[in-house]
Design goal:
Length: 57
């Protein structure tokens, strides 16, 4: 893997973690249960994306 490709994966990992953290935090602040669950599902999907990118290393 080239250094440029590694930097891309590191960036993607950082972005997916950031999105996951924002969604997790936001879902706890929502009063609408259905919307909170939806945002939590997005956070879980981002964790799956993170794991896939991490698996490339």
């Amino acid at each position: 893997m080239s250094p440029k490709e590694l930097l891309y994966i590191e960036d993607a990992l950082g972005h997916t973690q950031q999105i996951k953290n924002v969604c997790t935090d936001f879902s706890t602040q929502l009063q609408d249960t259905e919307l909170s669950n939806f945002v939590q599902q997005i956070a879980q999907k981002q964790q799956q994306v993170f794991e896939k990118f991490y698996g490339l290393l």
